[in-house]
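Q: What would this chain look like folded?
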Amino acid sequence: MSNPSAVREADQNQRRAADPTYSVFVTANAGSGKTKVLVDRIARLLLAGSKPSAFLCITYTKAAAAEMQRRLFERLGKWCVAEDAALREELAALGEPDADLPTARALFAQALETPGGLKIQTIHAFCERLLARFPLEAGVPPGFDIADEARAAALLGQ
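A: My prediction, written as structure tokens:
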């Protein structure tokens, strides 16, 4: 049986962490709602006028990155077709009761049209991109590539 006050406190903490006016660091156990908080935060930033190309979301696993992107696009896609009353209700629950409905509806297309797509990636992919962009500064040969597990094992065997 869940403790209603603990659930209420967790909801309040998640809402506060999703508020883009706060600088936050979120750490929690698996299944506790971190992805929801991040998707809520991105949605609120987009509603406030941030450009989709300005985001960089970093996760540890490819599965987590894919899940975050799926949830965000699912939400934005629903906003496109939602009835006014339902959209107002969802935006209010998100913490944006005064959000402009046409702006909310346009976010899906903006996110889809972002050159290079939304940057939701693993820490490894981010580091690889950084190294590729600045190889000399990083002390790696330009044009390097990352060895997959099989190739790494073969190289270690040699």
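Helices lie at 4-17, 34-47, 62-81, 84-94, 101-112, 123-133, 135-138, 149-157.
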